[in-house]
Amino acid sequence: MQIDAVDQRIIALLVADARASYADIGTRVSLSAPAVKRRVDRLRATGVIRGFTAVVDPAAVGWTTEAFVELFCAGRTTPAQIGAAARRHPEVVGAYTVSGEADALVHLRAADIAHLEAALERLRAESFVTSTRSTIVLSRLVESPGVGPSTG
């Protein structure tokens, strides 16, 4: 699918505020509201835009402790196995296969250190996990809601 500069700008505006009206977006990209809607419909139909969601502040729901955990796995553990295990743990907010020594990197969020420790112990209990190495987040410096160019 061909994505032009206007599509990229529309995507960036939706990432910044998915509730923006087609008219508001149209004003920013010099298109009519119906033209923006057609482009968004096309972006959705082709899978460029997979959906719209609410972004929740973890602190607002009390999950203020977070860590990145390197997983070291046994033998021929597949990415699918790691992903399936990660989805079983509600504290997991992201899981990635990575290059380097570790097999995967898991992002955990929890209410406090005790909750984080319990989640980490459950993750370590997965049959393929041989060891972990954790890094606790002290503060968030930069966080981006999505991909794409700046909305200016």
TrEMBL record:
Domain HTH asnC-type, chain residue ranges per copy: 3-64
Keywords (A to Z) from UniProt: DNA-binding, Transcription, Transcription regulation
One protein family per Pfam: HTH_AsnC-type
GO cellular component: cytosol
Membrane spanning stretches: none
GO BP terms, alphabetized: response to amino acid
MF (Gene Ontology): sequence-specific DNA binding
InterPro entries reported in the protein's UniProt record: AsnC-type_HTH_dom, Dimeric_a/b-barrel, Tscrpt_reg_AsnC-like, Tscrpt_reg_AsnC/Lrp_C, WH-like_DNA-bd_sf, WH_DNA-bd_sf
Signal sequence annotation: none
The name this protein goes by in its record: Lrp/AsnC family transcriptional regulator
